[in-house]
Design brief:
Length: 577
């Protein structure tokens, strides 16, 4: 029924081709599709920055349809940061546009003979082409998109890397342009250093032009469009609409109360600057400066993204999220959300993960080289990343790299990746996710914000959250829509015109995890990697510093040892990131 295709790019020969998409993979998209391709086509032992690594760009199954908030794209590959499999998820319009054209994934292999040359991939209705892009070499993301906007159609969207990706730094992100008319490169598949993988391929950007191609037509149009309408109405009129009304930055007060707003490289769980970092301050600025809330991709009903303006009313960045306020703000002892906004913009320009970069800066401060709270010093160091100084590259390579350089012991990571804001000491089930997820420390892999769980619940809660989040990241839905597996199954059923039971969606999520765990085993991961460092197991936070990650190894192991029996609660579990 669908003329779905797969784009294959060979950067060694600078060629691109299109082939039919396997019918047996029709329910695989996003993260699950990326995992399957990597398991089948990428040597887990390969050099992440070498020619044998495989870069995958895979929209979700429902991307490009009329389903609400369903245009997410997964970027996948072997991570130069963790040494294992990685998927990083982003909004913006490229995922939508690829799927409108029927392209289920872009698979990039090889690398050019000349590492100093840059190339681009142009994706159109009538085919795909690799073209020279040396004139874009070294451009920061915003300047790059401004140049490309003048070169390509107004209907085009872009996937790009900044200087950090070109320099192959392990903290480098992949940027996607959002849906507003300026097509800002503010939506980042940030975690795991996949921007460095893209840079190692010599690929500076991907242009996708759907022209006026309409959304994908479902097999059962009446049922599908009816479901889209009722689901949107229910979301907008129900309690979920208020969860992210002002974006994730509004979470700051709750996180601080729960001791998961880390301060000064996680030596404390609460920040004395929570009031000045609270997203409410950003919302207050809208009236006098402009800005406001918007949707990062066409068809989004959540609209969680804030647009932040400076004191003169000029655009500065989007979106300034909770994770960034925590890692570039509180964890560095930086008190002003406006300074964090400056740092966020710099990270987006350079193409850097704000979580990894913030963690690296905090470790550098904690080592005694710079004072906590030195916002101007932090901005200066980010400038050094672009200049390629030794310190700049160490920060750009992430938490572990700067910890080794400074010979500093307090390096809060899991599988080599810096922890996000949500701390595993008060949120122990989330800590189990950090230990057992193939992704390492990644809150979007399975976040459980429930400090009241008992120890016998940690493993199952983590596994179930990992399962639904993997299924969600495969569907194209944004986790902030908070879909359940029965809801995803209903959309799939109407889209394909055949019954897709909820159990099938659960199996997609579970098989995705199995594929990823198998890849990591091939890369050399063992049970010893399913643990957190001493700074999280021996150093406490909270009023009496009693909160530590003290979950026994055998309990942690249960989350991936075997699949827990399906409980009725599983079908009401919502994706949460």
């Amino acid at each position: 029924m669908f003329d779905d295709r797969l784009i294959r790019v060979d950067m060694t020969n600078l060629s691109a081709s299109v082939e039919p998409f396997p019918e047996t993979w029709k329910l695989l998209g996003g993260r699950a599709l990326s995992a399957r391709i990597l398991l089948e086509e990428c040597d887990p032992q390969c050099d992440p920055l070498g020619p044998d690594n495989v870069l995958v760009m895979a929209p979700g199954v429902l991307s490009g349809t009329a389903a609400p908030t369903s245009g997410r794209i997964s970027i996948g590959g072997k991570s130069p940061l963790t040494g294992g499999i990685k998927e990083a998820n982003a909004g913006g319009n490229p995922g939508q546009d690829l799927m409108k054209l029927g392209y289920r994934a872009v698979v990039v292999k090889g690398q050019p003979a000349d590492p100093d040359q840059r190339y681009a991939l142009e994706v159109r209705k009538d085919g795909v082409t690799v073209v020279p892009a040396d004139d874009c070499k070294g451009l920061w993301n915003y300047a790059l998109i401004e140049r490309l906007a003048g070169r390509y159609s107004a209907t085009a969207s872009f996937i790009s890397i900044g200087p950090a990706g070109e320099m192959k730094l392990s903290g480098a992100s992949v940027a996607c342009t959002d849906q507003d008319q300026d097509r800002r490169p503010a939506r980042h598949a940030a975690r795991g250093g996949l921007g460095a993988v893209m840079g190692s391929k010599g690929l500076k950007f991907v242009m996708v032009d759907p022209e006026k191609t309409p959304v994908r037509r479902p097999a059962d149009s009446k049922a599908f469009f009816g479901l889209c309408k009722s689901y949107t109405k229910e979301f907008r009129e129900g309690p979920k609409a208020n969860v992210f009304k002002y974006g994730t930055s509004a979470v700051v007060p709750v996180a601080n109360m729960l001791n998961t707003f880390p301060y000064k490289n996680r030596t404390e769980g609460q920040s004395p600057d929570a009031q000045t970092l609270d997203g409410a301050r950003i919302v207050e600025s809208f009236e006098s400066r402009g800005g406001g809330m918007h949707n990062c991709m066409t068809g989004c009903v959540v609209q969680c993204s804030n647009i932040v303006h400076d004191a003169d009313g000029n655009y500065k960045t989007s979106a300034l999220e909770f994770e960034t306020l925590t890692l570039l703000g509180s964890s560095c002892g930086i008190a002003s959300w406006e300074d964090v906004a400056d740092l966020d913009r710099l990270c987006d320009e350079l193409g850097l993960d704000t979580i990894e970069t913030g963690a690296a800066l905090a470790i550098y401060m904690d080592s005694g080289e710079m004072e906590f709270g030195d916002a101007e010093g932090a901005k200066r160091i980010l400038g050094e990343i672009a200049e390629g100084t030794e310190l700049g590259k160490a920060i750009g390579n992430g938490a572990v790299a700067i910890g080794k350089r400074q010979k500093h012991a307090r390096v809060p990571v899991a599988k080599g990746q810096a922890l996000p804001a949500w701390d595993p000491r008060p949120l122990k089930a989330t800590g189990v996710t950090y230990c057992t997820s193939p992704m390492g420390a990644d809150h979007t892999a399975g976040l459980i914000v429930n400090p009241g769980l008992s120890p016998d619940q940690f493993a199952q809660a983590s596994q179930e959250s990992q399962l639904i989040n993997a299924a969600c990241d495969s569907s194209g839905f944004c986790q902030f829509l908070q879909p359940t597996m029965p809801e995803i199954a209903e959309f799939y059923s109407h889209f394909y015109g055949e019954a897709v039971p909820k159990e099938a969606v659960a199996e997609i999520g579970w098989q995705c995890l199995l594929d990823e765990w198998k890849f990591n085993e091939g890369a050399g991961f063992t049970a010893a990697d399913d643990a957190l460092p001493a700074c999280l197991t021996e150093e406490g936070i909270g009023p009496d510093h009693s909160l530590k990650f003290d979950v026994p190894a055998d309990v942690v192991a249960q989350a991936k040892a075997e699949r827990f029996p399906e409980r009725e609660e599983l079908w009401t579990t919502k994706a949460t990131g």
